Amino acid sequence: MKRVMLLLALCLNACSVNNTVQQITPDANVLRYSKVQGYEDRFVNLFARNTDYPVTCNEDCYQPQKNIACHAHMQDCTYTGDNPELSINAGFTVKWIGHASFQINTESGQQFLFDPVFGQFDWPVNWAFRLAAGFNRREPAQPADDLFWQTDAVMYSHIHYDHFNKSDIDAFARNTRFLTPLGFAAHFPKGGFKIAEMAWYASKTIGDVTAHFVPAHHFSNRIVVPYLYEDENTTLWGGWLLEKDGNTLYFAGDTGYSPHFKQIADRFGSIDVCLIPIASYFSEESPDWYRQVHTTPEDALTAATELRCKVMVPWGYGNYSWQMGDKTSHSALFRLLTMKERLASDTPLYILNEGEQVKF
């Protein structure tokens, strides 16, 4: 009983400790703000609404694939094909946890997480999704405690519920660094967490890795109470580029296709490892809007070419996804393989099933 009371006291004490928040905004920042009266504090994308897509698949986009085994039509699948043998020697080990969540390890022993979400949405959105969609997503295997305690930094791309889960945060060690877009820290629970809010093209060095926050073409919101409160675009969004000993790994975050990919390549040169989303682009009601903020598989292939990726790892689909904006759990992967062949893309694809990892 004494031990239980001690743990409870420690928890209550930790939960009352204010977080440490650092804001990093380069002098030559490229932030853009709304020009709508009354909303001048809201962020907007670097590039205006895009309608110029280099490639669009309009028919026969989901061809059968012998290397994908499914329990139903493009649903509940496993990739069974061979991946290419590559000699990139970038020093990054990539594990796909599921949906947008990745674990990255370096040869020097550092560990980073992108957008870790191990359960359902935070309450009460989990209930709302269950009622609206009729299912809960299949959850990844619960991580061992050492995943949380050995993580040097957690990097979030944006505030949406499938990328940021408050319920996971307390499990991390208090010396873990949290790197976030601007405006993000207000959404953290108290607990003495170390948070660095960053503008586009801001950088922070952790050990021997430099993390650069880079633009994406997306949006943000977390809370909407009609006629009372909304937080549309009050927090920034973006992707992350890790740089170590001249080697680079890029995590795009949720994004639509826009010239920001070329801009990133202009700044950093060819990227060794690219983690690029390929899902959540499908909508019968609002197809133009969905494509604005989520890359189709052919958009992702185009982006990989513009980024000069030495390898591309696709994500966003899968057995652990919420299937928002998708025909099925793996329709995006079917379309990706269809379009890679049709476009004769020379960017190597390395396709992981959830829980698998590879060293590049």
From TrEMBL:
SUPFAM superfamilies: Metallo-hydrolase/oxidoreductase
Signal peptide: 1-19
UniProt keyword Endoplasmic reticulum present: no
InterPro entries assigned to the protein according to its UniProt record, in alphabetical order: Metallo-B-lactamas, NAPE-PLD, RibonucZ/Hydroxyglut_hydro
Keyword Signal among record annotations: yes
Keywords noted in UniProt: Signal
All residue ranges annotated as the Metallo-beta-lactamase domain in the record: 112-314
Full protein name: MBL fold metallo-hydrolase
